[in-house]
Amino acid sequence: MIVIPSLSDRNESNTTLLETITPEVSLDETLFLAPHVYKEEVKLPVVETEEATRSLREEHQLLKAHNAVPNFDNAHALAHFYFERKAYAEVIMWAKEASKYNSSSEKPWILYAKAKFYLGDRTEAIRSLELFLGYINSKEAHELLNFYKGQE
Length: 152
Known about the structure:
The protein is mainly alpha-helical. It has helices at residues 17-20, 46-68, 72-84, 88-101, 106-118, 122-133, 139-149. It has a domain at 46-149: Serine Threonine Protein Phosphatase 5, Tetratricopeptide repeat (Alpha Horseshoe), CATH 1.25.40.10. This is Transformation system protein. InterPro entries: TPR-like_helical_dom_sf.
């Protein structure tokens, strides 16, 4: 076994690397296994590949639209896009962004609460809905709040 020292000023010398490292010869036999060679090419699942490509293309278009025109509709579309794909951390980020443009809309608040709930933060989901309902009366937000409270 070759032991290579770590680099430091203490272990520098005038000898060359070849002089300091001498390999040890092992008398044990080594067995090399050849990799299994497949005669047929492995095909990727077409449906899943097409769906992933479509999803990436859609995400790129939504991000491009938001970068061109940062507004409520584009931010909410991104939050909804990520919610459909169960990317809840991104949902929270984009719901907050959408809420900056229109804090009186229930849409980002509901997506935010749902994402928090699915991430296991039921308390924050309930708190955010109660906060929103303190300012705006929303049937959907109220129904969602009652559902989350019923999960206790």
